[in-house]
Task: structure prediction
Amino acid sequence: MSDVTTDTSTGDGSTGRAPVTAVRAGTAVPERWKWGQLLLLAGLAVIVMFTVPNPSLAIGILIYGLWSSGLNLLLGYGGMVSFGHALPFAWGGYAAGLMLLHVTTSAWAALAVATVSMAVLSVGVGAVCLRRTEIYFSILTLAFAQLGFFIALQWRSVTGGDDGLAGIPVSTLWLPGVTLRLNALGDPLLFFLFTAAVVIVVLAGLILYTESPMGRVLQAIRENEERARGCGYNTRVVQLVTFVIAGAVAGLAGGLFAMLNSFVGLQPYWLLGGIVLIMAILGGRGSLFGPFLGAVTYLLLESVLSRHFASWQLIVGAIFVICVLTFPQGLWGLLTSTAPWRLLRRVRGSR
Amino acid sequence: MSDLILRAEKLDRSFGGIHAVAGVDLDIRRGSLHAVIGPNGSGKTTLFNLITGHTRPGAGRVAFDGHDITGMPYHKVARRGLAKSYQITTVFPLLTVFENVRIAAQSAAHSYVFWRPADGIRPVTAHTERVLERIGLAESRGVIAGNLSHGDQRRLDLAIALATSPRLLLLDEPTAGMSPSDTAATVELIHELNRDVTILMTEHKMDVILSVADTITVLHQGVVLFEGGPDEVKSHPKVQEVYLTGTV
Ligand SMILES: Nc1ncnc2c1ncn2[C@@H]1O[C@H](COP(=O)(O)OP(=O)(O)OP(=O)(O)O)[C@@H](O)[C@H]1O
Ligand SMILES: [Mg+2]
Result:
């Protein structure tokens, strides 16, 4: 396994390592880039826009990336593994879909309801799940997602059950001075730009959170909850706030996804809880931008492989396993540890 | 303001059949450097955990600065100004030394702030720098804590406790596993810290205890055997017996 850990300590290489708390093997600390991640995302969006021929796939990359990035707040920053992140995504989809079908065609209203209602629901779900830690927390999140799935299946009058909610109308986007129609089929470029703008703004918010005192406490809790409590922090509150943020972001992503497809249903919304985890881990837990890389990689692999192989999921699974074993810090960790600017800095440093 | 910063009364706790702490009374004077000593398993760590609210007492109560803190959650006790450094080194291993201390330093005023970057809060970073200077870790500020040497990790553990600006500092074997030179430096540091903060500590190294403590409580099988100054403890026959033979 590559020994990236030595790169992260600046100077003073003479000190021997204490065996007990020595940095866990394979979990080096990749650079985080803070606000630079916004530029990377903007760059990625431009590349995707010009190179991915299928507009719905290009927009999907941004939406999945956003969802996965929010999940990484729990996974990478908080050390909390949620198996049930399909729930907020599906909820956001249904909420936005129902709003557009029955109440108003305003995109802002639909997305706001998807986000805020999911945030409120997350307070309750999180309060229950966070009564347990580690694998028990994960199982509880999964249980809630299963519960949601069965409600969506059974409550036909609202969710459409098996058939889902089809024919969601094209939404209207009110901006100062102009009114636009967000038609993913008719005007995919506009839809893409709108999604990219939303995603970049949300990512900025997530970066601010992770760099704020509270976000830093979240990372301290991941490292040692007991010690964080000893510093005077109510660790449950910090974890709950994070759970709510991750839920709200997933709700927003689900709402965007409903608008993109004009459809919400059991498929695929409830089946993606594992895939969004794969995207986050593949992209890298160490940053918020990493999951976007994971989303691009996963979705492009899927779109290419599924055209040629019936059992493409087998290949994606194998690739995932290899990636986790060879670079546990994901694509982000791989890039930041081998990137040219890093080598350049080392050359400069040695002069 | 009372002369006592901490008052523990009739603290009691059993684990299964083991009576780890059996009706202990402990008074800590403001500004003192109070040591609790005793053989392995005599209940020192358990006593500390009862004081911090870490372990719920079976009976008894604890007053900190005149307020009853019995059964209060650990983070609230910490917030009142009672900090603890751990017997088994407890730091945030994947964070830098600076960030380890900064996390503790921000707890006083900026705990749950989420709308501004943490690194831009000048009073917190300045306080962090001061603590690092004082503990002698300023040189290693950029090192990932898990990569520090054992002695430096112990010092970082102490720095985290200190950065919360406590009024009472609990040190559970602060020199455990340290080399003689690191031990000497730490003893000096504890002495120096005691000018600002009351310290309650445990330690196995008798020479360390006798050189720093002004009051010593001897614990044996969960019971207070004796309490007094270093000279009294040194010459007390019962104490010598416990330390030499392990029985009373
Ligand atoms: N959580 C626990 N569960 C069961 N028994 C415990 C627990 N904590 C402590 N004990 C027992 O209580 C007794 C007192 O332990 P404690 O750790 O307080 O001793 P100590 O004086 O700190 O010892 P040392 O000098 O080795 O640190 C021991 O017999 C120990 O085995
Ligand atoms: Mg102990």
